[in-house]
Amino acid sequence: MAHQPERTCVGCKRIRKKSTLLRVAKLCDGEVAVDIAQKLGGRGAYVCPIWECIVAAQGRRGFEASLKKRLSTIVCEELLKHAPLVTGNWWKPTRKR
Length: 97
Ligand SMILES: [Zn+2]
Hints:
Blueprint: E1 6-8, E2 15-17, E3 22-26, E4 32-35, E5 43-47, H1 51-59, H2 62-67, H3 73-81
Antiparallel strand pairs: 1-2, 3-4, 3-5
The protein binds zinc ion (ZN).
Residues 9, 11-12, 14, 47-48, 53 line the site of zinc ion.
């Protein structure tokens, strides 16, 4: 089986398969965009597609730490649109502590 690339969620800091995460990219003009296809160039940050992680990443400056830029409210809202309203079982915690 092919190795699946993994990335760390900037919200919960758990490592997950890249394909299950949402990507946010910092474009060359300094703007930050939601990168659903994960094809945009530039520095990227990954977050689980759930409200908890998106809100946590924004609140704890996870995006800021990765992208050197805080997400605008517009980008944050767009990201939330891609997050299921209800947290599924798939992200059963593998707690760090
Ligand atoms: Zn997460």
